[in-house]
Amino acid sequence: TGFISVLWPSVPLVVEKRSVGLAFGIVTSMENLGDAVLPLVVAAIYSYSDNKYIPNVEFLFASLGVLGFLVGLYMNYYDFGHHSVLNRAFVPPTRFSECA
Fold first, then answer.
1. Which long-range contacts (CB under 8 A, 24 or more apart) does 11-19 make?
2. pLDDT in tens, 28-56
3. pTM for this structure?
């Protein structure tokens, strides 16, 4: 949930103005899907591990953290090759007026 929340401000920067609402809806749906499925996965791993959190449930969370880190690295790499839209210090006034 925390990682996806960081992505919210970038949605208008990477989507056409006419599709911003749809993009926010998709991001919200994916966040809700993850929030609904992850507890079920944790419960299944916990049950499979004889009702012990360590090491299997902790491995899941560590893996998700590593995956989030790798996705962040890839996003920076991809963004660098595409005019650094996500890593700009500011949005030029003409582009900002398109997002508003």
1. 12/99, 13/85, 13/86, 13/91, 13/95, 13/99, 14/85, 14/86, 17/98, 17/99
2. 898 899 889 999 999 999 999 988 888 99
3. 0.68
